[in-house]
Automatic annotation (TrEMBL):
Entry's transmembrane regions: 29-55
GO biological process, one term: defense response to other organism
Subcellular location: Membrane
Name under which the protein is recorded: Transmembrane protein, putative
One Gene Ontology CC term in the entry: membrane
Keywords: Membrane, Transmembrane, Transmembrane helix
Gene source species: Medicago truncatula (Barrel medic)
Amino acid sequence: MTSFINATCISIIIDKLNFRRLSYSDLKCIAFTISTMIIYISFLVSSLIIFSFFIANFKPQIPTVDLDSVNITNLNTKAVNLTATFDLSFIFETPDNHKRNVSFSDLEVRVLWSGKDKITLAKKILLPFSQVENNVTKIRAELTVIEVFTNSSDVSTGIGAERDSGSLHIGVSLTGSFMLRDGFSEALRHDFDRIVVKFPPGSNNGTYVLVPRPIFPNLWSNVM
């Protein structure tokens, strides 16, 4: 039964092929058409690749931001209110944007305690600034704890316990906006979580440093 079906199928295929025999001119026409289609498709693919490369090179590149270091000084959980000073430094790097300057505005920095629902410990509005292309700038910001946490609060108790253990876990957020010279504007938001600030035994001063630290030959600094 199977061989009969196969033979029948083969016979049908042969009949279809013999229904019309192609002349030499027909074959030449088909070959020319196929060749033309291949050339056209190749040209189309090449054009798409070149166009994508063109767009990628001329599209404005978004600047990058890294949290470089955190220094906590005078952390006091025994006073009437929790007190501490946070010295933060950020690295702003602008890529090659074809002579487009970048302007940053509405920048707000927050320091949060990771121990309990990411409570905001300190916040500050930074001054607007601008960068040229291919530029690296270190922005420093000094924040102090907002006066809402008493020495008996869960926040003060938890922070004191973490400090005494040698590691305080915090988060840092940076929000705002940036605009390129041609008017292209976009929101800016960076969240740096799981920052571990190391405290020596018995000390109220702790430090966090980005490791490994990037090396920038031309680094500009600005304190806000």
